[in-house]
Design a protein that fits this description.
Layout lengths: L10 E3 L5 E3 H5 L4 E5 L6 H12 L1 H6 L3 E6 L3 H11 L5 E3 L4 H6 L15 E5 L5 E6 L6 H11 L4
Parallel strand pairs: 3-4, 4-5
Antiparallel strand pairs: 1-2, 3-6, 6-7
Length: 153
């Protein structure tokens, strides 16, 4: 998925097994989508907590946040509860949405099924921003927030 591409609508269950459609999540303003490999791992916890810690800033920029991994809703619920996340964690069990965004791993699929990447999607489901880094856990939220604050779209 590249900047300017339109994302096909999809629906996934969150940590409470409630279904969420992309179009509904993005309807009120920009949606920050961060993909992470494994709930409760050290790097993913740091990344997700950084999004949590900047949640007020994202809201002030008119955006909402959602995380996606291939973990089950039950594992997502444990992750969300332990770390006090108020945003949805979506379960992409088959990796279909990761495929759609081009972030599904093939070689390390059993241990790290999803690449670490962040996208901003506008209400028309157009990709407006993208960043990926496997080693800098803060860059995702920091750069997404900066993109929102400087948005000209």
């Amino acid at each position: 998925m590249k900047i300017g591409d339109v994302v096909a609508d999809f629906e996934l269950l969150d940590q409470h097994e409630k279904p969420h459609k992309l179009s509904d999540l993005a309807a009120q303003g920009p949606l920050v989508i961060f993909f992470y490999p494994l709930a409760s791992s050290g790097g993913c916890t740091k990344e997700a907590c950084h999004f949590r810690d900047l949640e007020k800033e994202f809201a002030a920029a008119g955006a909402s946040v959602v995380g996606i991994s291939t973990d089950s809703p039950a594992k997502q619920l444990t992750f969300a509860t332990e770390n006090h996340f108020s945003y949805p964690l979506l379960s992409d069990r088959q990796g279909e949405v990761a495929d759609l965004f081009g972030v599904r791993r093939r070689l390390l699929a059993k241990t790290l099924p999803t690449k670490r990447a962040t996208f901003i999607v506008d209400p028309s489901l157009k990709v407006r921003f993208q960043v990926s880094s496997e080693t800098n856990m803060d860059v995702h939220a920091n750069e997404a927030l900066a993109a929102l604050q400087n948005a000209a779209w």
